[in-house]
């Protein structure tokens, strides 16, 4: 299965960039939690497990994965449904399955599965143009896991499935006017959704985002503190473990959702540019992998996986600067979180897989 | 073909995606550039405000010494418990818990917090001043448990008056600066400033400069470490002219003989105030940690007026002590010679009215008239002198007007003149009024301080001194004590005729050492010279009317003195409220003078011997001393 010559087509630069980001994240976790705590060690184990998952995803030909995509998808939907019944309740939501030594968050793995499913479905189509039926079917396929995750409730992760659908249908040839129409509907529907579709705490988050000072001690607090954290970093930063905002806990969950704020505080604008550069490189390199892909399945798979990754990166970094409402979305590769780390590294395994096999039959 | 077409479309759409990603990342770096570079200063300050707290370190006020080096006022450490609202999540809960832990009343805490509500949240609100060790321990334990992280316990220097009420009116007390004081003197909220006496007048010297400590706190307000510390600098040390032992002797004697009142004793050579007392007094320690409402109300409503500094704020009729002034003025003006004899037949008739003397003295010269306090003699001399010349000489000797002492709120002493009466009442002066003024009755109203000045001027032969309290300052810069020069006297010195000085001194000496009225002040070998006086509290008519009222109507007793007769070193006055007779004030002065001479000679200080069992403080009839205004003292006597 793993032919020797494939080895020469592995994208070592992409791997290097991905692990560089992991290392930066690890250092920031070390700093934010005040030394080699259990959180720090858990992250190291997660990177190790993620590397194994990555290897596994590289080893199996993505086309055989594509052939089994409907089975994988079914398994994923069943797991997500199961989580709603047997999941661990934490912080008011059921997201985790207790696996003894650690907890698994299945929704993290839903992204890659949805990407694979959509890539297989739209990449296999022999018709020249994408039909509306294809689009509807793709939409339904995405909606099922999305709703299941939203029921946990975990709106943040659920929403990351949408970029997958949008990106894959976009490159598969969805007419541009559809995009325009969707944007129009979103603009009109937003106030309605705000009024009727959201829970109170969600509405509160949005309104405090628009004016954080109105609740500087409560919901707006994190946003204000995030901005102070980033802004006080300056050009060169306060130095490793020298940040005051993260170290003295003015910024909550600094090792998790706000890891990028910690980086901005301690390493300054310079550190931010380095990290942004690495992420940009990873994304561009992955788009290149999609371009080089041997078939549409490969290209769509890469782009689908990459879409949720990019969306999450952009959203989290914007949130770190206090510019969007605080949402429980982690920063892939850097934030603390076992399931997220393993799933992200596995999905990069898929991207490497596609690029590596661009010449095989 | 279809595949190629497909590839082309994919490539185009990938280019779009790339462009979109580039734009998004470009915007993101722009955002971070704006936050981290353009607005850096602002956010850095906000971050510093977040985690840095500046704690004021209160400077100890300067220590106050007496002229012999005895400590009169010092500082002790006390603990303040404060709330810092900056990191308070639930102020209500904090207040409730703190009140419960420290065992104080919750409404009181609420009231204090409410009063300071508008101040910045990082500034501590002092809730408990001078906390007990038990309170400190209880609060500190809770604080470490994170139950009360927003409570701060601070050690602060607090004013301590080891001799309690001794010289309280002179030294004064401290208190939190009022809004007015904060605005006028640019003080921080909660600053402790002198509110009375020397503490107030020399506040700038005594205050020192507060220091500051910058600490790092975490998000729940717990101190992590100290960044830097600027130690406070202590206020300047001040040396007073007061003689501790004499001051003590005066107050002991007042209590032993059972009188309230006032004593002022000066060094006639330079105006140093050796003793200044006003009784009853208050304990300035009560004010040091914020006086409680009940104590303050009690002090203010007490009919004995413990807050009044009788030495400079109490005005009384001088009685026979005024004869010292009449004698001096008449001799200096050449109206009489010391040898001029006047016949006393138990009184005399002036302007159609009979004015009584307390005895039938026969032929009197000035010396004997002073010794026996003969009214007839002074009626006659006063009539020859006229009220305006008496007034002029009162101004010259320092009996009228203000002494100019560096204490706040001194009131003027009044010795009338024709001009004064016209301005005040629009009426002309009647010659008959002069007669009663000549023996210290009528519209005369003087403070003990002005009486002391007059005696000092007579004692030194014509130099009106300005009393001074502060004689030395040590700014703590290592140069030691720096003498404060006596204030330049704004009054022109005049030399009294040697004959005048000799005659008045003799007369006063005889009053004490001869067969006069003040023999109770006699000290063997010290040539004490003095004069007693009785100040009417109410006229005989008024007395009849006021019978049965609560007021204490007994007369006040005066004793003015200097010693020794030649080259006097001390001069002053003892004013004993409601002692009825001037000679009852004399033993108090005697005890103080004995203390002075014993200290000077380096022998053991005298023990106070009270011959008669002392009446306890005149508590049975607690009344305010009545100010003898122009209307209370009638001419009859």
Topology:
The complex is a heterodimer of chains A (361) and B (637).
Chain A: H1 12-33, H2 38-59, H3 62-67, H4 69-86, E1 88-90, E2 93-98, E3 103-104, H5 106-123, H6 132-150, H7 155-159, H8 161-171, H9 176-197, H10 200-210, H11 219-233, H12 259-292, H13 296-320, H14 338-356
Antiparallel strand pairs in A: 1-2, 2-3
Chain B: H1 2-38, H2 40-51, E1 52-57, E2 64-65, E3 71-83, H3 91-102, H4 106-115, E4 125-128, H5 133-144, E5 151-160, H6 168-171, E6 174-176, H7 179-185, E7 192-194, H8 197-201, H9 203-207, E8 211-217, E9 223-230, E10 237-240, H10 244-257, E11 261-266, E12 273-279, H11 285-288, H12 293-301, H13 310-313, H14 323-332, E13 342-344, E14 347-350, E15 353-356, E16 362-364, H15 366-372, H16 375-385, H17 387-397, H18 418-425, H19 431-438, H20 448-460, E17 470-474, E18 482-483, H21 498-513, E19 529-535, H22 540-546, E20 556-563, E21 570-576, H23 586-601
How many discrete structural domains of chain A?
1
- What's the tally of helices of chain B? 23
Assembly of the depicted chains: heterodimer
As laid out across the biggest beta sheet of chain A, the strand order is: 1-2-3
- CATH names the topology of the largest domain in chain B as Beta-lactamase
CATH superfamily of the largest domain in chain B: DD-peptidase/beta-lactamase superfamily
The biggest sheet of chain B, with number of strands, parallel, antiparallel or mixed sense and barrel status, is:
7 strands, mixed
The largest sheet of chain A is: 3 strands, antiparallel
């Amino acid at each position: 299965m793993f032919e020797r010559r494939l080895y020469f087509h592995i994208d070592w630069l992409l791997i290097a960039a991905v692990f560089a980001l992991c290392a930066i994240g690890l250092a920031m976790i070390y700093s934010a939690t005040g030394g080699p705590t259990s959180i720090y060690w858990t992250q190291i184990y997660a990177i190790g497990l993620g590397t194994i998952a990555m290897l596994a995803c590289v080893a199996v030909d993505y086309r055989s994965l594509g052939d089994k995509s409907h089975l994988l998808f079914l398994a994923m939907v069943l797991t997500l449904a199961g989580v709603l019944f047997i999941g661990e309740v934490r912080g008011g939501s059921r997201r985790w399955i207790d696996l003894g030594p650690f907890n698994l968050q299945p929704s993290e793995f839903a992204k890659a599965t949805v990407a694979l499913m959509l890539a297989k479905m739209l990449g296999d189509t022999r018709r020249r143009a994408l039909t509306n039926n294809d689009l509807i079917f793709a939409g339904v396929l995405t909606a099922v896991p999305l709703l299941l995750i939203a029921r946990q409730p975990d709106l943040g992760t659920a929403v990351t499935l949408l970029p997958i659908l949008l990106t894959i249908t976009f490159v598969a040839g969805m007419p541009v006017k559809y995009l325009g129409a969707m944007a129009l509907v979103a603009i009109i529907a937003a106030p309605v959704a705000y009024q009727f579709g959201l829970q109170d705490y969600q509405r509160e988050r949005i309104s405090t985002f628009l004016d954080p000072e109105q609740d500087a001690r409560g919901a707006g607090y994190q946003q204000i503190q995030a901005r102070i954290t980033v802004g006080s970093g300056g050009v060169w930063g306060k130095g490793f473990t020298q940040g005051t905002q993260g170290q003295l806990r003015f910024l909550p969950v600094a090792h998790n959702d706000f890891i990028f704020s910690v980086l901005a505080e301690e390493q300054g604008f310079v550190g931010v540019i380095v990290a942004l550069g690495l992420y940009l490189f990873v994304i561009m390199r992955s788009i290149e992998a999609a371009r080089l892909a041997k078939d549409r399945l490969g290209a769509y798979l890469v782009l689908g996986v990459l879409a949720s990754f990019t969306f999450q990166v952009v959203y989290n970094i914007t949130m770190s600067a206090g510019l969007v409402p605080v949402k429980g979305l982690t920063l892939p590769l850097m934030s603390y979180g076992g399931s997220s780390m393993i799933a992200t590294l596995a999905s990069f395994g898929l991207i490497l897989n596609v690029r590596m096999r661009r010449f095989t039959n | 073909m279809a595949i190629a077409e497909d590839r082309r479309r994919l490539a185009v759409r990938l280019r779009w995606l790339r462009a979109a990603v580039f734009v998004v990342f470009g915007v993101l770096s722009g955002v971070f550039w704006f936050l981290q570079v353009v607005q850096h200063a602002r956010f850095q300050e906000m971050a510093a405000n977040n985690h840095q707290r500046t704690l004021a370190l209160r400077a100890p006020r300067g220590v106050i010494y007496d002229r012999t080096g005895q400590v009169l006022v010092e500082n002790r450490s006390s603990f303040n418990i404060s709330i810092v609202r900056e990191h308070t999540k639930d102020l209500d809960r904090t207040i409730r818990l703190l009140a419960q832990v420290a065992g104080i009343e919750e409404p009181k805490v609420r009231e204090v917090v409410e009063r300071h509500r508008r101040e910045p949240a990082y500034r501590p609100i002092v809730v408990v001043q001078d906390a007990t060790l038990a309170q400190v321990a209880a609060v500190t334990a809770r604080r470490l448990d994170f139950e009360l992280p927003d409570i701060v316990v601070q050690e602060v220097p607090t004013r301590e008056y080891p001799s309690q009420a001794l010289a309280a009116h002179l030294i004064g007390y401290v208190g939190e600066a009022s809004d007015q004081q904060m605005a006028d003197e640019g003080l921080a909220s909660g600053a402790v400033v002198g509110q009375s006496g020397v503490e107030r007048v020399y506040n700038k010297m005594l205050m020192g400069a507060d220091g500051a400590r910058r600490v790092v706190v975490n998000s729940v307000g717990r101190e992590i470490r100290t960044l830097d510390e600027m130690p406070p600098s202590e206020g300047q040390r001040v040396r007073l002219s007061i003689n501790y032992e004499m001051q003590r002797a005066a107050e002991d004697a007042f209590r032993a003989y059972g009188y309230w009142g006032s004593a002022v004793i000066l060094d006639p050579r330079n105006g140093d105030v050796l003793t200044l007392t006003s009784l009853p007094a208050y304990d300035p320690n009560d004010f040091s940690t914020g006086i409680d409402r009940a104590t303050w109300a009690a002090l203010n409503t007490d009919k004995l007026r413990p807050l009044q500094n009788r030495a400079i704020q109490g005005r009384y009729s001088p009685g026979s002590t005024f004869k010292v002034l009449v004698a001096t003025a008449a001799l200096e003006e050449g109206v009489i010679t010391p040898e001029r004899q006047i016949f006393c037949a138990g009184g005399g008739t002036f302007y159609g009215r009979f004015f009584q003397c307390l005895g039938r003295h026969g032929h009197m010269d000035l010396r004997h008239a002073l010794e026996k306090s003969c009214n007839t003699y002074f009626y006659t001399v006063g009539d020859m002198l006229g009220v305006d010349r008496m007034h002029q000489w009162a101004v010259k000797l320092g009996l009228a007007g203000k002494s100019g002492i560096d204490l706040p709120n001194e009131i003027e002493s009044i010795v009338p003149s024709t001009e004064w009466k016209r301005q005040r009442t629009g009426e002309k002066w009647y010659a008959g009024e002069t007669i009663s003024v000549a023996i210290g009755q009528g519209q005369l109203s003087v403070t003990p301080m002005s009486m002391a000045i007059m005696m000092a001027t007579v004692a030194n032969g014509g130099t009106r001194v300005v009393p001074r309290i502060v004689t030395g300052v040590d700014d703590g810069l290592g140069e030691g004590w720096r003498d404060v020069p006596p204030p330049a006297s704004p009054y022109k010195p005049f030399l009294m005729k040697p004959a005048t000085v000799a005659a008045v001194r003799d007369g006063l000496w005889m009053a004490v050492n001869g067969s006069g009225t003040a023999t109770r002040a006699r000290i063997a070998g010290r040539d004490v010279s003095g004069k007693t006086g009785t100040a009417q509290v109410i006229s005989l008519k008024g007395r009849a009317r006021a019978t049965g009222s609560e007021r204490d109507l007994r007369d006040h007793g005066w004793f003015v003195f200097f010693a020794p007769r030649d080259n006097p070193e001390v001069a002053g006055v003892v004013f004993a409220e409601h002692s009825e007779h001037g000679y009852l004030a004399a033993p108090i002065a005697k005890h103080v003078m004995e203390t002075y001479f014993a200290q000077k000679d380096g022998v053991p200080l005298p023990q106070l011997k009270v011959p008669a069992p002392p009446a306890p403080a005149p508590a049975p009839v607690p009344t305010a001393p009545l100010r003898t205004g122009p209307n209370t003292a009638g001419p009859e006597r």
